[in-house]
Write a structure and sequence with these properties.
Number of domains: 3
Number of strands: 19
Largest sheet: 8 strands, mixed
Mean pLDDT: 93
Bound molecules: flavin-adenine dinucleotide
CATH class of the largest domain: Alpha Beta
Radius of gyration: 23 Å
CATH superfamily of the largest domain: FAD/NAD(P)-binding domain
Shape: globular
């Protein structure tokens, strides 16, 4: 087989998989050599595969790019193709619906594949889940699908994305065992389908206070929800609203990078202003510019040390909210429907007068119960069982936080003996523990460009551009 005909299997079907296809094909890889395995429309994934019109991108359009040299492409596409969303336009930028971003990704994919021309303009997409991966006799990989099929490939790219969130507490067996109560627990709210079943008189507990919680609140507000919504979070702070920040260059970081120095730089660089202020947010964005270089220079212990001290600030201010969602939450809070409870959920039990009774622990350690009809898990925290199986199988190594697999700066999976696997790569948010701040769509695009550049060099012998793209 000619090297250019080597097969590439992409496991996962979200944005990471779609941009990888786009950049691989633009780098000269034949579409017919690419196979995708993953549910749903290619490009939608957990992040953008939602129908609800209140689930919005949390950054303005110009930050949702596939090509760094065409950062306004989505904004231009949106102006030409989105005609039913006047609310997208806000003072701090245009915040479109996530489902519309999925449409944009599909249109880019269609164009790139069409440009690749016959007879190789079709990729293969199996809407299954990969349950296992092992080495094939050929020296490549063999993936097992949940329908029993086996697929072999010379190269595999893991793009499994954001794992399904887990319950952060004990869930009583009786609640799970009864179909009547099990359906009242929404473990993964990202696709928004649960909203079709909730009536406006249902008492709802939302677990977590991040962007997913805000999406849920916004969608309930639009549906004119009347009954109490309890938002359960130990600190109870909602994310700050995105301002119209404009960042300058990065700060000068102290050398050599150490957790204490990085922490001090954050403290000294952020101005003494509210986090909602555009100057504060601009400073935060400037700190992000070179943060991955700082991260790369730390060993595992230092990374854990840094996150113990900086993690709260990072998770609270890195992920800011679309203005529309904060406005909806404020409205519901003012009307008394949204009740923010500073409490941790410890157990979900069957209720007496309501289907569910929640055990909570308050800020001072005091216990209390809450009776509700639905519980929506908006914590976003989960473990990917497939990636865990690769650790068990000795194919990869767990990262410093036990969340994903260790990867090199070139996205290659690191084996237990420390060597890098040249034909097993990863793209997407699961690389965060290894590479740092790589969760955003734009960072995923950069990773796809890097991987495509390396493939092109390896498989079709074309040179790399400075940004990881390919010289024509
Ligand atoms: C709800 C949500 C909203 C977000 N909004 C934004 C935003 O507005 N802006 C931004 O920049 N970033 C946002 N992000 C960050 C997001 O991580 C990236 O932008 C990017 O979309 C990640 O794409 P992905 O394909 O890696 O992950 P995902 O979107 O999680 O998709 C992964 C896909 O792989 C599939 N899969 C998983 N395991 C397997 C398996 N074993 N076999 C086959 N298929 C599998 C999943 O079913 C899913 O379809 C958001 C993330 C989430 C979760």
């Amino acid at each position: 087989m000619a090297v250019a005909d080597q097969n590439i299997l992409i496991i996962g079907s979200g944005f990471a998989a779609a941009v990888t296809v786009i950049h691989l094909v633009q780098a000269g890889i034949k579409p017919a050599t690419i196979t995708i395995v993953g549910p749903g429309a290619l490009g939608a994934g957990n992040a953008y595969g939602c129908d609800d019109k209140d689930f919005r991108l949390n950054v303005r359009a110009a930050l949702m790019w596939i090509w760094p040299e065409k950062r306004d492409d989505f904004g231009l596409w949106a102006k030409a193709n989105i005609t039913d969303d006047p609310e997208a336009v806000q003072n701090s930028g245009n915040f479109y619906r996530r489902r519309d971003f999925a449409r944009y990704v599909k249109s880019c994919l269609d164009t790139v594949l069409a440009d690749a021309g016959a007879p190789h303009n079709g990729i293969t997409h199996h809407q299954q889940i990969v349950t296992g991966l092992g080495t094939a006799d050929s020296g490549g990989w063999q993936a097992s699908l949940d329908d029993g099929r086996l697929i072999t490939a010379d190269h595999v790219i893991l793009a499994t994305g954001n794992p399904t969130p887990q319950w952060p507490c004990r869930v009583n067996h009786a609640v799970m065992a009864s179909p009547a109560t099990a359906k009242l627990l929404v473990q993964n709210p990202w696709d928004g389908r649960w909203l079709d079943h909730v009536t406006s008189g249902s008492r709802i507990a939302i677990i977590g206070s991040g962007l997913t919680a805000l999406d849920a609140i916004t969608a309930l507000a639009r549906r004119n929800h009347q009954a109490q919504i309890y938002l359960l979070a130990p600190h109870g702070n909602l994310p700050p609203v995105q301002a119209d920040w404009v960042k300058q260059g990065p700060p000068i970081w102290p050398k050599p990078p150490r957790p204490s120095k990085i922490l001090r730089r954050f403290r000294s660089y952020l101005p003494d202003l509210p986090p909602e202020d555009s100057r504060w947010q601009a400073a935060f964005e400037e700190l992000r510019i070179d943060i991955n270089q700082q991260w790369a220079a730390l060993n595992d212990d230092d990374r854990r040390r840094l996150m113990r001290r900086l993690g709260w600030l990072w998770s609270r201010y890195r992920y800011r909210a679309a203005p529309q969602t904060i406005a909806a939450a404020t409205r519901l809070q003012q009307s008394g429907i949204l009740d923010i409870c500073h409490a941790r959920l410890t157990a979900i039990n069957p209720g007496d007068d309501t289907p569910l009774r929640l055990d909570l622990t308050g800020a001072a350690g005091e216990g209390r119960c809450l009776d509700v009809d639905y519980v929506i898990n908006c914590t976003g925290a989960g473990q990917d069982p497939f990636l865990a199986s690769l650790v068990t199988a000795g194919i990869g190594v767990a990262d410093a936080f036990g969340k994903g697999l260790r990867v090199t700066a070139d996205n290659q999976i690191i084996r237990p003996d420390g060597s890098a696997s040249k034909n097993l790569l990863m793209i997407g948010p699961q690389m965060a523990s290894s590479l740092g701040d790589v969760v955003a769509a734009s960072e995923v695009s950069l990773a796809a460009i890097r991987v495509a550049g390396n493939f092109a060099e390896q498989l079709v012998g074309r040179g790399k551009r400075h940004d990881g793209g390919i010289d024509a």
